[in-house]
Amino acid sequence: PTPVIIDCDPGHDDVFALWLAAGNPEVSLLGVTTVAGNGELEHTTTNARIALTVAGVEGVPVAAGADGPLRRKLTPATWIHGDNALGGPVLPAPAVPLDGRTATELTADLLEASAEPVTLIPTGPLTNVALFLEQRPGLRGRIREIIWMGGSTGRGNVGAYAEFNAWSDPEAADLVFRSGLPVTMVGLNISHQALVTEDVIASIAAIGNETSAFGVELLRFFCAAYEVSQGMPDGPLHDPITVAIAIDRAVAEVRRCHVDVETRGEFTAGATAVDLRDMLGKEHNADVAISLDVPRFWRLVRDAVAALR
Ligand code: BDR
Ligand code: CA
To answer: Which of 12, 43, 238, 258 is catalytic?
Structure first.
């Protein structure tokens, strides 16, 4: 299996990314690091531990990272995820412990210990990844690739052009896209293909285990919030697409191109300028996910949930 580390801000869809990685045999979830984004760090960290607890996952360390963006103020996405970043179900106390190391320390230890290079899967603002690259440049070679949920080839979901994870910490995203490491961008243009329809909810409910029951409560809250705040009754389950790509590249079609992150725009801060038509002739620095094999994606999600508790 491909060794992966998930850096996340759970968040309803982040939870499904964790479950997909924990429940699929093609990837090995080495560790989880948390970042402030959908909620304050305290919430996203507790929620990551709860996600693993509910699914019965043991032995995967969870370490907390940055409590806010590199240079900007944190704006938690309460309008989608609620005040605790995981609105909906009654949350159990997490049985999974918090690792004493920082996100950077845990990531460094896992990269050093892994027999092969590790795939980093960030599903929140890129603050932790940017800090890691700055603080541990000697370990870059231990990173196989970065598969990130964020950005968009088109319109945004917090501004006209900015997607939430990119907009939360554009300076961090800019650093990662200029890092020279292999980056895959899973933006809104593809994540809005992963819609949580009533059929999807019914098929997850039909699994009938504890994880699926908790998951259905998450999805119901998430879809209701999407309907109210974005006029989309079938919410898009953005984050697990990253893990699906780590499992099976054929689940998404990608285009290799140049991506810049707007850090200064008066109206566009946090926008990802994706040069799909090669207008600028700049060196290609990312694989940008374009289209999703939707049935295959949901099969992967369902099979993983079914394999958990
Ligand atoms: C991204 O923002 C968060 O609210 C989600 O968890 C996802 O990572 C979508 O814009
Ligand atoms: Ca997220």
So the answer is: 238
pLDDT in tens, 97-115: 999 999 999 999 999 999 9
- CA dist 213 and 216 (Å) reads 5
Question: Is the bond preceding 11 in cis, omega lying within 30 degrees of 0?
Answer: yes
Q: What is the pTM of this model?
A: 0.98
| Nearest atom, ligand 1, residue 80 CA | 4
Type of residue at 116: E
Round to whole Å and give the CA distance between 123 and 184.
12
Q: Taking CA 242 as the corner, what is the angle to CA 117 and CA 266, rounded to the nearest 5 degrees?
A: 110
Residues 6+ apart with CB under 8 A from 277: none
Coil/strand/helix, residue 86: coil
For the CA of 163, the nearest atom of ligand 1:
10
238 is catalytic: yes
Separation of 280 CA from ligand 2 center, angstroms? 30
Strands, sheet with 2-8, edge to edge from the N-terminal-most edge strand: 62-64, 27-34, 2-8, 118-122, 143-149, 183-186, 286-292, 252-261, 272-275
| ipTM exceeding cut-off 0.90 for this assembly | yes
pLDDT in tens, 253-271: 999 999 999 999 999 999 9
